[in-house]
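Section 5.1 Outputs to date
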Amino acid sequence: MIIGVIPFARCNSGYKQKNGKVTFDGREMEGKGWIVLNESFAKNDSVVYYKSRAFEYADVATFAALDDHYAKDKYKVYYCDEYREGQNYYTTKKQTIVTIENAIPTSFEYIKDDYAKDEKLAYYKGRSFKVKDLATLALINERFLKDKYQVYFERATVRNADPRSFRVLNQNYAEDTSHIYYYGFRNEVNNGIHQIPCNKETFTLLAYPYSKDDAAVFYVYTKISGADPASFTTIWGDSSPEDVNYTKDKTYVFYKDKILPEVNVPGFKIVGLGYGADGRHVYFQGRIVKGADPATFKTYEHGFGDADSEDATHKYNAGVRADKEI
């Protein structure tokens, strides 16, 4: 039943005009003189609509939609969006209409991916920010812009970046003629944009989030002290994030950017769920699990009660004993 309903709802979503009738989400709209501007905006003889919400203060005659969020008339520029309230997330949609203060309608233009500009400022989701040269401002991707003088990451200037040669390598790395950059998302620990202190000519991306040049190995954008780039290897064990963070070279085993204490490199193996072991110790996320027996230690694939692993005598959870003696 659900599979059959979803395509129908999509076909009727937004504003549509057919056989002289205008509908929004399949419901016929009342009034005369309807003009459908796009799926989000429409107007009739007297009122402008953003989705199901009318805003009477817009100038109907000169109102124009620039994309699904930005619109303007001869007097003002608007940014419109839709949201859902947490308690009614799946049942209730609400629209918000914001007048962009000080935006200049005559020169305001949409760029792409929620970016826009007028003759004085640039905008992202209706909020203004300054750039060096508006005339040459261009979008690189949804997170980067540039003009002829500077590169911008989420509206902030990327220090010393060269706009002529700057390019995005993948979802976390970028480069220009002289530098390699790591960039993270807002909800990540390693958010923002960071220059990696590497030799660009010999720089190589390894399994994320590792990289190296001829003299050093890097975790995210930080040099791993003591790591040998020639013998460094990544991702041995399964593909869970906790286990990918175990790496090694000819001398050490590392967890992220730290050397494991007292480790026997040839005897080290991945156990899973963030655990590793050699003949002497069990490790959880790079630290020794006190008292754990590596010979009998095993993990539970999906956890078991308050424990994620055990050895012959104890249960453990996140590297800490979780029970009395078995």
